[in-house]
Amino acid sequence: MPQSAARASETRQWNRLMDLAEIGAIAGNGVNRQALTPGDRAARRLMVGWAADIGATVSIDEANNLWLRVEGSDASAAPVLTGSHLDSQPKGGRFDGAYGVVAGLEVIAALHDAGIVTRRPIEVVAWTNEEGSRFAPGCTGSMSWAGTHDVHHWDEVRDQEGVYYSTALAEQMKAESDLPRRPLGSKPYAYVEAHIEQGPILEAEALDIGVVTGIQGSRWFTVTVSGESAHAGTAPVSLRKDAMIEAMRAILALSEAMHDPEDVLRFTVGRLAVSPNASNSVADSVTFSIDLRHPDTETLRRRGDTIPDVVRAAMRACTVVVRESFHADPLAFAPAVIDQIEQAAHAAGFSHRRIASGAFHDAQFAARVCQAGMIFVPSRAGISHNPAEFTSAAQLAKGTEVLLRTVLALAG
Ligand code: HGY
Ligand code: MN
Ligand code: MN
């Protein structure tokens, strides 16, 4: 493990994170900076400016992923790639995603300051729409890049205002038409992403670093219950096709069907849209989301496959459509990268442990293209997807120091 002459700067990193946190800032120190919005574009512009300061070249691909690149001594060598995402949840925190992008930038800035040129080029990426909160599913930028789906696969997806993903994507590409384009898809030598844990383990065990072994599987579904709107005062209940009541029955039945005494299976209904959404009209349509997660491939398949039957059994007078919009199986990261990260944490003198990720990340799609791994830093009280999300400047700097050492080792 090379002793890095370069040093990540805790202050520069923290200040940049706080600059980003002002974009889309909401009460309680949170951010609402959803994918393909003016806030997303403003955050990306900050990155472009910081990249220019260290001579990194900037480009965007057809999926609107943002790439920063510094050349290596061997221009033909496959690059080492790091990064994360700049988009947030509607009531997100300042660190989910933004930390990994700024940490990647800090790595190339530290190398630039130390005058170090690695053999391999180094690239930092900000993936488009990791969260999937505005346009479901998440990871559409990294999936497009990895070739999991064609970039136009999600053209017809609409946000809650009815805006099409394809329209929002085209708008952002147009707004960034001054940035050079690069082809969609590449084959890095390795991918390493720094991210907050978004769980309580590292803090509870007073550890500095999480050496991430893999990511649990996720399945997303959209359920639309269709009935008939009617007058709340005159329509007899016995004659109603009440989409609200029957959607509630379905959600309760699912909650029971997805119960896991060991509390490993994660079932969440986070979104519910009602039409006509008037207090004195019976709902004619209710659409709700399902997010299902489990670390075992077979369990995730088996439990998820029961969803359509459970929903249909809950219907009385309404009809229902269940559509699966995302299915990422559990993933194990590359042992060589896991070892590299562990050695870097050890060499830096930081306490660490191996840990699995409950959250999904773009790394799970990068792992389909090259050897990949992740570095976690603690989250206060395990809180995330919440304005109260917090990790200290010192804790973030330790993660970035491990990222720097890992990238140096991989980049030669
Ligand atoms: O939902 C997730 O796991 C990620 O944080 N977007
Ligand atoms: Mn994230
Ligand atoms: Mn997230």
Which helices and strands, and how do they pair?
Elements: H1 10-21, E1 25-26, E2 30-31, H2 38-53, E3 57-60, E4 66-70, E5 80-85, H3 98-114, E6 122-127, H4 140-146, H5 165-175, E7 190-196, H6 201-204, E8 209-215, E9 217-226, H7 243-257, E10 266-268, E11 272-275, E12 285-294, H8 297-305, H9 307-313, E13 319-328, E14 331-332, H10 335-347, E15 352-357, H11 363-366, E16 371-377, H12 393-411
Parallel strand pairs: 5-6, 5-7, 7-16, 8-15
Antiparallel strand pairs: 1-2, 3-4, 4-6, 8-14, 8-16, 9-12, 9-13, 10-12, 11-12
Helix pairs in contact: 1-3, 1-12, 3-12, 7-9, 10-12
Structure write-up:
The mean pLDDT is 97. The termini are close together. 49% of the residues are buried. This protein folds into two domains: 3-216 and 330-411, Aminopeptidase (3-Layer(aba) Sandwich), CATH 3.40.630; 217-328, Alpha-Beta Plaits. The protein has helices spanning 10-21, 38-53, 98-114, 140-146, 165-175, 201-204, 243-257, 297-305, 307-313, 335-347, 363-366, 393-411, and strands at 25-26, 30-31, 57-60, 66-70, 80-85, 122-127, 190-196, 209-215, 217-226, 266-268, 272-275, 285-294, 319-328, 331-332, 352-357, 371-377. The protein has twelve helices and 16 strands. Helix 1 packs antiparallel against helix 3 (98-114) and helix 7 packs across helix 9. Strands 3, 4, 5, 6, 7, 8, 14, 15 and 16 form a nine-stranded mixed β-sheet that branches. Strands 9, 10, 11, 12 and 13 form a five-stranded antiparallel β-sheet that branches. A two-stranded antiparallel sheet has the order 1-2. The protein has 412 residues and is of the alpha+beta class. Helix content is 33%, strand content 22%. The longest helix has 19 residues, at 393-411. Bound molecules: (2S)-amino(hydroxy)ethanoic acid and manganese (II) ion (2 copies). One manganese (II) ion (MN) binds next to loops.
